Amino acid sequence: MRRLPERSLSNGKHVPVMTGQVTRFLQDCPPGIFVDATLGGGGHTAAVFKSFRDVFTCIGFELDARILERTKKAFKEEGVEAELVQSNFSRIAEYLAMKHIESISAILYDLGINSQQIDNPESGFSYLQDGPLSLSFDNTRAYAAAMLIEECSEQRLTDIFKNYGQEPKAKLLARAIKNNPRKITTTGQLSSIIREVVGERFFIKTASRVFQALRIAVNDELGCIEKSIDSTIPLLKAGGRIVVISYHSLEDGLVKRLFRKNSGKCICIGKVPVCQCGAGPRIKIITPRPIRPNLDEIETNPRARSARMRVAEKNAA
Fold this sequence. Notes:
The protein is an alpha/beta fold. The protein contains 13 helices and 7 strands. It is 42% helix and 14% strand. Strands 3-2-1-4-5-7-6 form a 7-stranded mixed sheet, sandwiched between helices. Helix 7 packs antiparallel against helix 8 (170-178) and helix 11 (221-232) runs parallel beside helix 12 (249-262).
């Protein structure tokens, strides 16, 4: 497969974002179980273990079996003690119930893509390197995005690009993709079509939005975030905290609404006689506005530049 130009690629090691802020916000949590909902390379869990080894027992969830295996090996070498589980974070509450775990002290969501997934062409996430068009966090679903494109109508593809990528040329791109005479199975093929539609000048931003939109659709990311947060907040002990790091406005907007709902503010659309969203005063919002990484961190880890952190604390029953 053709190799696309290497731009904005890391050295292959995932650098966790805003680790100092994460540990700072966990300082006052009650002792018990810390859950890393998006384990990835394990940087956050390792930092939490080293800072709070006498306070927390760590459990990490990761869907990609290849990343999970690498993290297990790294933890063994570094002496980090944690239970690691291969699962989508939308099923955390189910797993904890299966293990008869009734409460947790803290939970962290880092919703960004792991650098290992971006930088490995075979993972099918990068528009800068050619590989199978997957975009699935489950490494067993090869060509998931390719299958989605094949199955979608032009209108459905347009809606995906508009709703999940906020792409202004959604219709033009969807038409070009659906009218392409060859079956699209690689990231390189899709990137070439995007480049033909918008030109080299606008390629990076457009490809970023298109790949983001397909990734969100393939993984049902927004649905999984909502299900997971709504099902884990009730498990937090009083004084326990939920920390969420998001990377684009769709994620951050959803997290903001979920926090508002769980702090007792109705988020029903329009005027309704009786609230139907399930709002209740379960948490207190600690960060009214999202926290951003400082300039030093952005300089050393450019992928942190779009990170936004929100934190909330469980109310006493």
